[in-house]
TrEMBL record:
<dbReference type="Pfam" id="PF01547">
    <property type="entry name" value="SBP_bac_1"/>
</dbReference>
<dbReference type="InterPro" id="IPR006059">
    <property type="entry name" value="SBP"/>
</dbReference>
<protein>
    <recommendedName>
        <fullName>Extracellular solute-binding protein</fullName>
    </recommendedName>
</protein>
<dbReference type="InterPro" id="IPR050490">
    <property type="entry name" value="Bact_solute-bd_prot1"/>
</dbReference>
<comment type="similarity">
    <text>Belongs to the bacterial solute-binding protein 1 family.</text>
</comment>
Length: 435
């Protein structure tokens, strides 16, 4: 269906470049929530907080600094792809769209996105300026299909007060394991000394949690998750080793049981466990708790990338990016998009305050970034982060299928090998139908 839609894009009209106000308009569509009432007139980005607040203030500042242009914003419910597909079908896609890097291939391989090298060149942005993880995430073949905006993935969020009670602090830093065997030994020690679980888990209704953990520790063993665009590799010695390790956490009850994401977040903030492996996006929330007297995390919070438990220190990641859907545009609109890219690149530090890893090497080295809480500790994610191969389609759906089967394996609802085999079968069937 999407291939047919791509053909229809050639018939698009230019659309309205101006609206009687003398300005060039471009239409931006994003997720991250709606907070225009609070931040819609804020042009001091430093005063904005959270993903929604910061992106809203950024667009307001861009519009204020470019009086000949106007970025008109449409906020969609996360993740927004059904609406985007409908807009493509109606031959009226936006000019700029926020897109997870794992979704880019679904659109780019159908010629529904423009390669962005011309916009990057006009904006004075060299692809070499991107971090390794960011560049991998937006490159398909030899073309770049988006302005990368961040890298996000799982982190070990740690209650250092409980780690101290467990005897797992050295020099003010938590002691993290360097092997699966050390992980289990430290978890047993932690539980014996604190009476609380070492690992807080969201194994219920959170397939991303299970998939992220499985992908990370298969990759760490040097095994590819995909060797071609149509077949996933999970039921392998490396996959079994990783899944059996994650199953053992539940067999020995070293982690919490039967929690969804809200319950796991609440448990960590209430001091009910040592480590909560969740995303970069939770740093702000947990840091606020760490700065609130009387709260269990007060002055007791640290965060690091997943530790290396097998051969290579790598971690499964994704990222947010800005894509340009394919359609006819005026030269003025193309110039406006390039100016927007330049502005967003210049303000990548501001976005990094959300907790996500910057997409630009210069921001990683910026003293302002390093001075932010915990950023020096999590910065390696920009180097060790690995997305799924860009040639793989339907990555969001794959994460859901793998996460569902992986969670069944980890919690004992299915035998581990059967769950991995079922995940392979379901993903391969999905990919056999993908165009």
């Amino acid at each position: 269906m999407m291939r047919a839609l791509a053909a229809g894009l050639a018939l698009l009209s230019l659309g309205s470049c101006t609206r009687g106000d003398g300005m060039t308009h471009i239409y931006l569509q994003r997720f991250f929530g709606e907070c225009g009432a609070e931040y819609g007139k804020t042009t001091d980005i430093s005063k904005a907080e959270g993903e929604c607040g910061i992106i809203t203030a950024m667009v307001a500042k861009f519009n204020a600094e470019n009086p000949d242009l106007r970025v008109d914003v449409n906020v969609v419910a996360w993740p927004g792809y059904p609406q985007l597909t409908a807009q493509v079908a109606a031959r009226d896609p936006p000019d700029l769209v926020t897109m997870h890097e794992g979704v880019i291939s679904d659109y780019a391989t159908k010629d529904l996105l423009e390669p962005v090298e011309p916009y990057l060149k006009a904006a004075g942005i060299a692809p070499d300026a991107f971090t390794d993880a960011a560049r991998r995430g937006v490159t398909i073949g030899k073309r770049i299909y988006a302005l990368p905006w961040d890298t996000h993935g799982g982190l070990f969020h740690i209650n250092t007060a409980l780690f101290a009670k467990a005897g797992l602090m050295r020099g003010g830093k938590p002691v993290l394991p360097n092997s699966a065997e050390e992980f289990v030994a430290q978890a047993r020690q932690f539980q014996a000394r604190t009476g609380k679980p070492y690992f807080i888990q969201s194994n219920v209704a959170d397939p991303a949690f299970a998939a992220r953990n499985l992908f990370t520790y298969i990759m760490a063993q040097g095994a590819p998750v995909f060797t071609d665009p149509k077949h996933i590799r999970l039921n392998t010695p490396e996959g079994l080793r990783a899944a059996n390790f994650l199953r053992l956490i539940n067999v020995e009850r070293l982690g919490t049981q039967n929690m969804d994401t809200p319950a796991a977040i609440a448990a960590f903030m209430s001091g009910e466990g040592g480590i909560y492996p969740t995303g970069t996006w939770m740093i702000g929330t947990f840091e606020q708790e760490a700065n609130s007297p009387g709260r269990p995390l007060y002055k007791s919070y640290a965060v690091f990338p997943y530790p290396r438990l097998w051969g290579e220190h790598v971690e499964f990641v994704s990222g947010h990016s800005w894509v340009v859907p394919a359609r006819r545009r005026t030269p003025q609109q193309r110039e406006a998009i390039a100016r927007f890219f330049k502005f967003m690149a210049a303000h990548n530090f501001d976005w990094a305050r959300t907790g996500h890893i910057p997409a630009f090497k210069a921001v990683l080295e910026d003293p302002r970034f390093i001075a932010l809480p915990h950023r020096a500790d999590i910065a390696p994610l920009a180097t060790i982060g690995r997305p799924l191969p860009s040639y793989v389609l339907r990555q969001n759906a794959i994460e859901g299928l793998v996460g569902e089967e992986a969670a069944a394996a980890f919690t004992g609802q299915k035998p581990v090998q059967r769950a991995l085999a079922d995940a392979e079968r379901r993903v391969n069937q999905l990919l056999s139908q993908a165009e």
